[in-house]
Amino acid sequence: MSQITQPSDAHETTPAPLPWEERPAGSDAVVWRSQRNPIIPHDLIPSSNSIFNSAVVRYQGGFAGVFRCDDKRRVMQLHAGKSRDGLSWTIKNERIQWQPHDRKAAEINDFQYGYDPRVVWLEDRYVVTWCNGYHGPTIGVGYTHDFETFTQMENAFLPFNRNGVLFPRRIKGQYAMLSRPSDNGHTPFGDIYYSESPDLTHWGRHRFVMGATDGWQATKVGAGPIPIETDEGWLLIYHGVLTSCNGFVYSFGAALLDFEEPWKVRYRGEPYLLAPQAPYERTGDVPNVAFPCAALTDPASGRMAIYYGGADTVVCLAYAYVGEIVAFVKANSSV
Amino acid sequence: MSQITQPSDAHETTPAPLPWEERPAGSDAVVWRSQRNPIIPHDLIPSSNSIFNSAVVRYQGGFAGVFRCDDKRRVMQLHAGKSRDGLSWTIKNERIQWQPHDRKAAEINDFQYGYDPRVVWLEDRYVVTWCNGYHGPTIGVGYTHDFETFTQMENAFLPFNRNGVLFPRRIKGQYAMLSRPSDNGHTPFGDIYYSESPDLTHWGRHRFVMGATDGWQATKVGAGPIPIETDEGWLLIYHGVLTSCNGFVYSFGAALLDFEEPWKVRYRGEPYLLAPQAPYERTGDVPNVAFPCAALTDPASGRMAIYYGGADTVVCLAYAYVGEIVAFVKANSSV
Amino acid sequence: MSQITQPSDAHETTPAPLPWEERPAGSDAVVWRSQRNPIIPHDLIPSSNSIFNSAVVRYQGGFAGVFRCDDKRRVMQLHAGKSRDGLSWTIKNERIQWQPHDRKAAEINDFQYGYDPRVVWLEDRYVVTWCNGYHGPTIGVGYTHDFETFTQMENAFLPFNRNGVLFPRRIKGQYAMLSRPSDNGHTPFGDIYYSESPDLTHWGRHRFVMGATDGWQATKVGAGPIPIETDEGWLLIYHGVLTSCNGFVYSFGAALLDFEEPWKVRYRGEPYLLAPQAPYERTGDVPNVAFPCAALTDPASGRMAIYYGGADTVVCLAYAYVGEIVAFVKANSSV
Amino acid sequence: MSQITQPSDAHETTPAPLPWEERPAGSDAVVWRSQRNPIIPHDLIPSSNSIFNSAVVRYQGGFAGVFRCDDKRRVMQLHAGKSRDGLSWTIKNERIQWQPHDRKAAEINDFQYGYDPRVVWLEDRYVVTWCNGYHGPTIGVGYTHDFETFTQMENAFLPFNRNGVLFPRRIKGQYAMLSRPSDNGHTPFGDIYYSESPDLTHWGRHRFVMGATDGWQATKVGAGPIPIETDEGWLLIYHGVLTSCNGFVYSFGAALLDFEEPWKVRYRGEPYLLAPQAPYERTGDVPNVAFPCAALTDPASGRMAIYYGGADTVVCLAYAYVGEIVAFVKANSSV
Amino acid sequence: MSQITQPSDAHETTPAPLPWEERPAGSDAVVWRSQRNPIIPHDLIPSSNSIFNSAVVRYQGGFAGVFRCDDKRRVMQLHAGKSRDGLSWTIKNERIQWQPHDRKAAEINDFQYGYDPRVVWLEDRYVVTWCNGYHGPTIGVGYTHDFETFTQMENAFLPFNRNGVLFPRRIKGQYAMLSRPSDNGHTPFGDIYYSESPDLTHWGRHRFVMGATDGWQATKVGAGPIPIETDEGWLLIYHGVLTSCNGFVYSFGAALLDFEEPWKVRYRGEPYLLAPQAPYERTGDVPNVAFPCAALTDPASGRMAIYYGGADTVVCLAYAYVGEIVAFVKANSSV
Amino acid sequence: MSQITQPSDAHETTPAPLPWEERPAGSDAVVWRSQRNPIIPHDLIPSSNSIFNSAVVRYQGGFAGVFRCDDKRRVMQLHAGKSRDGLSWTIKNERIQWQPHDRKAAEINDFQYGYDPRVVWLEDRYVVTWCNGYHGPTIGVGYTHDFETFTQMENAFLPFNRNGVLFPRRIKGQYAMLSRPSDNGHTPFGDIYYSESPDLTHWGRHRFVMGATDGWQATKVGAGPIPIETDEGWLLIYHGVLTSCNGFVYSFGAALLDFEEPWKVRYRGEPYLLAPQAPYERTGDVPNVAFPCAALTDPASGRMAIYYGGADTVVCLAYAYVGEIVAFVKANSSV
Question: What is the pLDDT of residues D187-232, one digit of tens each?
Fold first, then answer.
């Protein structure tokens, strides 16, 4: 069975145990839902209309995260939160106030909106990427040491872009990011690209990674949680979108990317891992959405806990074994 | 706390008590739902596919109303109904047969469809406005004295228009109406305008009142119930539409319009008051719709009962205190 | 009361009894749902994401069928299944492998996708029609004797076409098919046409039958189950689509076609017979869909069991009396 | 031969002779072009990018007009002009500065843009209508006595509207206007309506007159010059639009409206009178446009001079005999 | 050099000489325009707005043809015409009145519109195919012996279809037709298919031939003149469409189809043969269109005269040597 | 009068004299056309369908350039060319074969298409930017020393982007580029952004410069020639697009950008400088296009020669005085 070779939170001296529930008896699903879903309701904090598509990491023996909390104007905001167990969360009612990293970054520091964050421990700090409003959506980049104060760097790319996801370490000396160029609306297309940077500010050497194909991923695809380093390559959980006559349906699946040249797809699972079928995925502010933004792993056991948004309304949790997903992707690969 | 200065049903000698339920314990919501929702099911009458977006008023010590009842062809119809308590309704199974007001009005009296009615006591009669099919949607105008016979006047405007809402009295000697120019489809835009008339037949002096902005009201806005006269100006409950990747979402909020020149917005609440989150608002013939068409008030207590359509399928009820809404709008105003 | 003059499964020596549940007490509905709905869940077989829009017939004293099973790639597949009682089904986990009828048919035998099948006993075999992917959707034609091996003939028409439905016998010596020319997407239009063939391979003498009108059938219409031969003409159950601001809504109704010249509509019921209002029709992979593909009848009693897809996710069952539907269509005809 | 019964410029004591050129030898055209076309070039005045779709009337023994002059920002403006002979024009380089009619009209007097004017002598002054920018296009109304100072009244209608054309006298005591409700873009639809007003400020009793049909007028239609009073009814020259795969094509034709109830179409010519075929109609800022805004007549001879825009770039002139047009419309009527 | 193996007008005992002009000095074009273009002006007959996209054949020592003449309503009509030299044409001012072939065909004989005809000598008569309006565009089929009386058969296909082009003889005993399934508007897609028929009434065994690719043929392709039989296969001249930001551009190129199985493309020329660059192709009712519908050949010399429409307005002529085109296609093939 | 402070071709020891023609007598235009237009015909080289939107620079006492030559497949290609006088050009018939700059660049060196080039002398070489096909349009970057061999570097940005224009020197030590993020089609939007790079490979610190406004630049804007350094800031000639009902119209105007922080617009001229009004701009492969890609200047005289594409078909030349443009922009600024 495939192994996690490098956990992304290896800096944690006493990593908190994963939230975990065993696979339901009789099921042979590779990914299964928490019985406690949704683990965060839409109105956990007074200011929120909905909380979903959020990113969590291990932090100081517990957990911390950056949460997409649409407020009651339905404006997209980012909020910080913490948890002892990864299930019960305390989220600040006030949104994150980004401090500019330097005088230049101050020029773009006027916050319009932010959504769909990802968080990764990168060298010496937690780096946050998100969809940041700057004359349209693009990839915001910032960091925090303590989930109390947050610093904003330059946007990684020109508009229009979404789903910027960093790798958890430099690759051949360069920082690396996946992203999905888009347009300024509900974008009926979208492929995953790879970009490199020496400094997290200037980006280049852009490469196409993989595009929309058919079925559940016929309209567009976008990277989900931070890629997980395994002995078979980078395990990428990603979302795919199908357009029915009644709109978009967001499911998620997985692929394995080359270790050294991650824009090369080694295996790509044809079936989805999880499609919106539970009531909290079927109905909500946007029906039929399951959108993963974070995954926590336990290297020893191979367990993985996937945090995903349900119906653009609530935060949900699903479980899997990394080794089983790797095996599933290899056995059902379109590549 | 702000006061209702002029109830729109002051002509009622013994006004019926409002339907009312107190705010749920522990809630700090400004508007809260009835526990009995939906108060009118989609199939209350044999001919109806759905009953929603309807208008009620106090009438002879009880209540009466004009109801949007889409029939089983899914053609939009208007039906009259009455109620002792505002909760249990008797709606006629046959649609309203409009009688022409005069020989001229007879020329446009061929009923194609009617929907989203509003009703207001105006001087000496109940005046009904609705979206009337005449080579496209426009604002129909008619009246009744008894909710048994109904008389149709001229359409107020050229097509295409929806959400025509009269003020409950003349302003500076002129009748006044809010409306939302639209197009002939599912109109992806829409602002609220103000028009004047000396005779309810000829309209002019059109003024822009307010437009779509962002968040829950990014796509279009339209007046809801008859404006309520308060010491802070006209309280306007209005719907707003957000376009998700899966379609329109209808919520409602409030604004305060100038007393003398109602096209001037004094305050406009940025957050919504109620968004579609209950099951009967989330699913139905059109998912994620909360659409208010009427509000009854009790001047003494400041209580308000808002009638709104749920998911274009059923009639629902929500409650609030007028003074609290006024305070909320002023405290959260974008103006 | 109108009679079924020629059951389409008269070849069955001991026809299985229909699945049947009486009309609920107090209801006056012409068509009513099974209390056991959905009778086939979305995950009856391991490979399926959903099972819906499927066709069943009587077969050797029981029942057999061809099922639309979208797999976990969300690719549309056809599977064979059998049942003792029409309610509990055994569906093969592997899709149907079509064998080419001859050397020519082998040229188009590369299966891309198949969906929305219909099945009819025609002279000496069960003929299957379905929406077949060949450079876009068109009408696939094949047959089986035993629901174990299936043979593919030529596609009936050029792309783009859907909802090809055969009549259960030759009419004036010619095979006859209804179909709905479409386009390659979610087709916002669609009328029903009639075509003739001497050999099930070459088709011509195409006639317009009926088009979209308004209300529940304003966007498009398509034939549903195999037409039923009655003393009033061919009873056609068909689906209609309404476009709300949140997408398509699929309901179904009925019409009576001329016996000799079935492209002439004798009566067409204005109201729908069933619209998506049950939870399993309201939510699912495509909300608000009720899509009929098969109907079984009992000539003696006039009972009919209609198999229809719910929300593009599950198989459902509804019941009616043929005579009552005929009477309803005649009493509520727009023709 | 049909007669002009009431010239619209009967107030002129010594009406200027019409510009006139005889029908080319060998031609049997009902309408023929001036050999001097375009009579006004796109850059007649320094500030203009283009001059087209303009309205002229007889004025003090000569001619005056209101001209659409798009400036070099390509913003649409209205300019006044005068001419001795109707062919050589002096147009002011500065746009018309509208003075508000009263304190109310001052509220809407902030000029955004104006285009496609019409001018008519109405009782005691020249009344101008145009497409006026007020939160979208609607019908501006103003007047002048001398083509030097211009006064703006209230907009006639709510947005969105274009092609507002007044009748040259009251009908049954009411002012009367044709207009074409539209949307805020390049409107792919459009029908002609009739509205009445007691005071040129409040409008009502709206009636559908005629809609788009097919061929050259398949997409939309709009009134052109001021209707001409003949013994067969009001002669209406109107434009029609056909949508080719390369955009809109504007031609013009004619109809005869009932004298007393002008929303009733007595005759409507199926063929166009003039389609864009000359080089100055085929190419320009908008290819393939012939758009009439004014017609001058000589009651004695029945001659008519039609001013129309060519390719949204220049002003052109065409000639006809009113009696011949009336005869043509009657002989080729679709009504 | 490749040879014409079977001229399509071999039945002509004394075939008229081709219209012909030599390649201009200095040019190395494979296809070159007539210096007399347009050879038929838009107003050759009194009733025509435009004459274009027309089909001609050799007939009784001269030439005859079926012409698309849009009338002055801009309704599409078919007219018959004759010529001594193929350059000067006499076209009837009245459209073709189709007589039904039999009682069945009479059911569809109500002429709505017809356009883009092709004509081929097939066995014993001239068979005409065209885009025929029957609840949308489809392929009309008819025949004539004398270009005086014309008989209409059944439409070949269900709507929506255009550019039906017959092969000039049976292939393996079956009639054969190319066509381009489309939709009901300006169809932004379109591929060429092959269909067979035993009787010109029933069609089947549909095969995909070739689709849109890129460049001048990126949007859609459609068969042009009747295929020409050469020793390298069927030479197919076809049009291709590119979508610029200002609409469709129609050019034409060529391919070679397999002799026995014409749905197999042997060679397909990547560059166009002729693109709209002459003034009469650049401007007109639809700018930038060159659309071929007929080609005459002289087997002895290999000369070819191609009739094509210019700008949807006029008929033009271009010349080539069949052998040179074949060589060009083979030398520049994308297959 | 404003001065050119730093000519972009100061490396030329004996700079060739500009092509030049004086302003026509009687004209007061700020920019005027060459009487020799188009200076390069569409078919200058055998392989070209059209030559337009091309970039020229001074080179070794004469001129050199990179030309957009769409070939006869209508595929977009880049060709090199040279000229003695800037008017008569020798363009290679074979397209530029890009050599990869390094092993990494070789990964993206598979040429799909290239168009709308710009060329600038940057430090020690001529750097070329263009719209490069890499899974959609993005900004290609390369260089040449001799216009014989060309080297390709990394694409500057992720797709989708067009109109990448480099500044002629580093600004505060960083390379600087303007570009216009777009989408993959005919993009109905587009603003100009500024990006920085330390190495021409990695780009960041993206800033919004200016967006579409109204009139001739209502739909989108994009940088044209290399910005010109003047004592009033960077003079930017840019194109703007207006969407008529018949498609896009491309004109050009000018703005002045801050010297140190070029994303700050100091002045922006509201009127256009040149709009498509000449025949070779009005008709061609894309009607109504004037698209500038290069400007040569003579610092001593202030003369400027602007190379622009006409109707996406030919290369044209216009003239101006830099000082006059600067004065015009300041006098007519919207900023």
Answer: 999 999 999 999 999 999 999 999 999 999 999 999 999 999 999 9
Give the dihedral sign, CA D41/D47/D49/D50.
Answer: negative
What single letter denotes the amino acid at residue C266?
Answer: R
Q: For residue F182, what are its two tokens?
A: 């777009």
Measured between alpha carbons, how far is A312 from A282 in angstroms, rounded to an integer?
Answer: 10
Q: Pick from C145, C1, C138, C136: which is nearest to C64 by CA?
A: C145
For residues D247, D250, D253, D259, the Cα torsion angle rounded to the nearest 10 degrees is 100
Separation in Å, CA C161 to CA C138, C249, E194, F103, F222: 4, 20, 16, 50, 43
Chain C neighbours among A 10-69 (CB < 8 Å)? Answer: 28
Cα F145 to Cα B203, F66, F122, distances in angstroms: 72, 13, 11
Q: How far apart are CA E179 and CA E163, in angstroms?
A: 5
Beta-carbon contacts of F173 under 8 Å, excluding residues fewer than 6 positions away, are F198
CA distance A268 to chain C (A): 12
Ordered alpha helix ranges (H), chain E: 103-106, 279-282, 322-331
Query: Against a cut of 0.95, is the pTM above it?
Result: yes
Q: Are F302 and F323 in contact (CB under 8 A)?
A: yes
Number of continuous H segments (helices) and E segments (strands) in chain C: 2, 23
Q: What is the pLDDT of residues F250-291, one digit of tens each?
A: 999 999 999 999 999 999 999 999 999 999 999 999 999 999
pLDDT tens, position by position, C178-210 = 999 998 889 999 999 999 999 999 999 999 999
Partner-chain residue, chosen from A161, A202, A205, that has the shortest CB–CB distance to F198: A202
Name D171's Cβ contacts closer than 8 Å, sequence gap at least 6.
D196, D260, D262
User: Which structure tokens are listed for B277?
Assistant: 């989150």
Let me know if chains B and A touch, i.e. at least 3 Cβ pairs under 8 angstroms: yes
Question: H-helix or E-strand containing A314?
Answer: strand A314-321
Interior angle at CA B67, CA B61 and CA B69, nearest 5: 150
Q: Are the CB atoms for D181 and D190 separated by under 8 Å?
A: yes
| Closest alpha carbon to F120 in F62, F64, F168, F178 | F168
DSSP string, D239-284: EEEEEETTEEEEEEEEEEE-SSSTTSEEEEBSS-SB-S-SHHHHSS
User: How confident is the model at residue F184, as a pLDDT?
Assistant: 83
Note whether B72 contacts C287, CB cutoff 8 Å.
no
pLDDT value of residue A183: 87
Q: How distant is the Cα of D225 from the closest Cα of chain E, in angstroms? A: 21
Q: Which member of E216, E245, E272 has the closest CB to residue F186?
A: E245
Burial class (CB in 10 A: 0-12, 13-18, 19+), C62: middle
> Which 3 state secondary structure label does DSSP give B279?
helix
Model pLDDT for residues B8-48, shown as the tens digit of each residue: 788 899 999 999 999 999 999 999 999 999 999 999 999 99
Question: Looking at this protein, which amino acid is placed at residue C147?
Answer: F
Residues β-bridged to residue A204:
A196
Cβ contacts of B146 within 8 Å, gap of 6 or more:
none
Residue B331 pairs with which residues in a beta bridge? none
ipTM: 0.96
Q: Scanning the structure block, which residue is given the tokens 């007008």?
A: E9
Tell me what the pLDDT averaged over chain A comes to: 97
Q: Does D270 touch chain E (CB under 8 A)?
A: yes
Query: Is the CB of residue C248 less than 8 Å from the CB of residue C229?
Result: no
Among candidates E181, E196, E158, which has minimal Cα distance to C263? E158
D271 contact F CB<8A = no
